[in-house]
Design a protein that fits this description.
With 283 residues, this protein is an all-alpha fold. Among the domains are: 1-102; 139-188. It has twelve helices and two strands, in the order αααααααααααββα.
């Protein structure tokens, strides 16, 4: 299948997939950069035998969400199934194309001896030479923009160049605006597997903290031998005066007091004093 045919197939399938999951408003965001990225991923899936193990669906969804807002809301299982189905279609079309091209090479054309096809070795040398020339010639516009914006990734620079139709000033302005708005394409997170060198052991946070305390921490051993004696509480002196009905009934602090009822004045007149009178001696 030619490149244009692949793009048409992927554009149609991607549009149907977005419409199926309620993202029909994002179909207009599909451009050549999105199609080339999807086609490259799908071709890698078709060539890789262990594609199911090596595929990183989360990274693909994150990258597609940068181009097509809302793509991240689709279930990753459905995205993976759609990728494998479309990869199978592209692989089958590539095989048919290779078979047809092989048949065309076997056809012999009548003509003069001077009009002959170049040998296979010459063709391979020419192809390899062209590839080496293409590899030696980097994209100057992308390289210049990457030097101006080292924090931006190649996909973001390529996307802005495509929108500006190759104009460097417009592309640079787009990169700045998208960076300020937070809509720029960011580099995918790389999984780093740090392997310790020989003789080094990686410790977790708890063991590392313990080791640091043992090495640099100061421990006062005399502090453990001391006995802590809290100071006595400051108490007010005990109140010894007791009141009852606003009158002082005791000055010794008794808890209980005997209450005597006072007699009336008439009853007091009836009292008789039985105490003997004092004897006075007159000299």
């Amino acid at each position: 299948m030619a490149t244009s045919g692949k793009e048409l197939l992927v554009r149609g399938k991607l549009g149907d997939f977005l419409q199926e999951h309620g993202l029909q408003n994002s179909i207009g965001d599909i451009d050549e950069i999105v199609l080339s990225y999807v086609i490259s991923i799908l071709e890698d899936l078709g060539d890789d035998r262990n594609a199911e193990e090596n595929i990183d669906v989360d990274q693909f969804v994150e990258m597609m969400d940068a181009y097509i807002p809302g793509f991240e809301s689709i279930d990753s299982v459905k995205v993976c199934k759609w990728m494998f189905e479309l990869s199978g279609l592209i692989t089958a079309d590539n095989q048919n194309e290779n078979q047809n091209s092989g048949k065309e090479e076997k056809v012999c054309f009548k003509g003069d001896n001077s009009q002959r096809f170049p040998a296979a070795d010459e063709q391979s040398e020419e192809i390899n030479g062209n590839e080496s020339v293409e590899e030696e010639e980097p994209d100057e516009e992308v390289r210049m923009l990457l030097e101006m914006f080292p924090d931006s990734c190649t996909l973001e620079i390529t996307h802005c160049l495509g929108l500006s139709k190759g104009n460097l000033e417009t592309a640079a302005q787009l990169v700045l605006e998208r960076a300020e708005e937070g809509t720029s394409i960011k580099r995918p997170k790389e999984k780093t597997n740090i392997t310790p060198k020989k003789g080094l052991v990686l410790l977790n946070d708890k063991d590392l903290k313990k080791k640091m305390v043992e090495r640099y921490g100061y421990q006062d051993t005399d502090e453990d031998k001391k006995t802590f004696k809290p100071p006595p509480l400051k108490q007010e002196p005990k109140k010894m005066v007791r009141y009852l009905d606003g009158r002082i009934v005791s000055t010794k602090g008794e808890r209980f007091t005997e209450i005597k009822k006072e007699d009336a004045e008439e009853m007091k007149k009836t009292y008789i004093n039985l105490k003997p009178a004092k004897k006075y001696r007159f000299h």
